[in-house]
What does this fold into?
Amino acid sequence: MIDKDLLEKLFGFCYARTKDSYEAQELCSDIVYALVRTANTEGEISDAYSYIWKIARNVYADFCNHYRRHTDWFYEGDPEKIFSLISDDGQMPEQDDAGLLKNVYQQIAFLTKAYREVMVAFYLDGLPIKDIAKMQHTSETAIRQRLFSARKTLKTEVEKMENPTTQKPVTLNDIDFTIWGTGDPRWGDPRDVCTRRFSRHIVWLCRQKPMTAKQISEEINVPTVYVEEELEILTKGNNGEYGMLRRLDNGKFAINFILLDKETINKAHNIYIAQLPEISEVIEKFIQENKERFLAFPYLNHKIDLNLILWQQIHPMASTFAHTVYLILKEKYFSGITMMERPFSVYGFESNGTNYGGGCDGINAANICGYTQIHFGNLYNKHIKKHFNCSHDVANDPELQLAIQAINGIDIKSLSEQDREHAAKAIECGYLYREEDILYTKILVNNLSDSKHLFEITKELTKDYFDESAKKVAADIAELISDNVPEHLLGEWELVNSLANIPVLDSLADILIGKGMLIPPKNYIGAEGCWMSVG
It folds into this structure.
């Protein structure tokens, strides 16, 4: 039961009860450790979910007891007393009573970093103004001004806390995105640091308009210290170069990738869906006219299957109309825009209840099974499950290695007992098939030298097949981009067109399956949509 969903809930439980993300991670680790330790004891648990949260509350209680032995922050005093003791000239109160600072400490967390650091350094660390100025690389006057401004802010916020009508609870409603990626994710995939609900809320707020850490803090009622930590993570991404957010020159944070709301993505999809009858009719006719050419491609397989070829070609077929639209957009509407170039980019939309879940991944391997170089392609959509992703390691995949070895056939009698087990799995997932006592590769195989011609026939669809309808779609997409993409992201306009085209792949497959031109694999997994190039 300790899966990603439970871990996120446990972390949220801890995050709401601790002073920063590091302390929350420590508490969450303690809870998970207690759960694992309990799971290895004797006995039965009638209600596992309730028991998990009972353990979580017990660990948190122990955490609080330990914490109380080291601090006295929870004194129920009047915060106004401490403000009367903190003078405007920045002198500490004579009374040494940390309990009176309870609400002050809480509100310090809502200050921005510059003011918070000064307050903590002066009041909690006891440093003199001249030392703080030196640490901050600024003047003593600037430090005094920050102290004065921060004290004023604290007093106002504590007064709000004492008034129940102004209190606003932390409310992070469920919000989710469907985010796609293009390029090489090994360079750095910013989605890796945007998995928590808190992260998604900050991204969504910055999508609506650029915001400061303080504005975000006030909007969702989360201390600024937490927001600033999250902003730093979301801005850097997982490689320090490409994040979900970007910091603007005015200190505000703005979204750093194309993210459309539900209404806009539905409008974008409908622009392409309206053209599906014409797109499918053109492609159906094109397939009928070019069957023999597809079959004549120099594949290395023992047997050639037209159905496998069409599944290999379905992704570029579904993209040809969008590519025609892209060419019109580039030439007519965005010729003056410099397009963004990076190894990997993400783009997405607010989840609208429709899960297309399709894509196309590729992996490369070297010096495997007697070949110097190998490339694997892998298509997936609602009819085909994914075999592997971009980071897959062929050197540790015995089933794929058997598929490589079986290009010219493998005698079953030559296999070891362990290889036989792997061969059975390879047959089950569609990599191999058996003909008498010989195993052959079922997935499509071609020479690496022929790879550049692999989709040559399909690419002919971009030549005058969709011109008039593509012009209409381009005009609608251009208007949608102008209305919904901020100026600093216009260099990524082409990704909006890619998002709009998403329904075409599944819909085209549905139509061709309905006409009997495509046959989907049983149980959603087989050789369909998978191919390799060797050299």
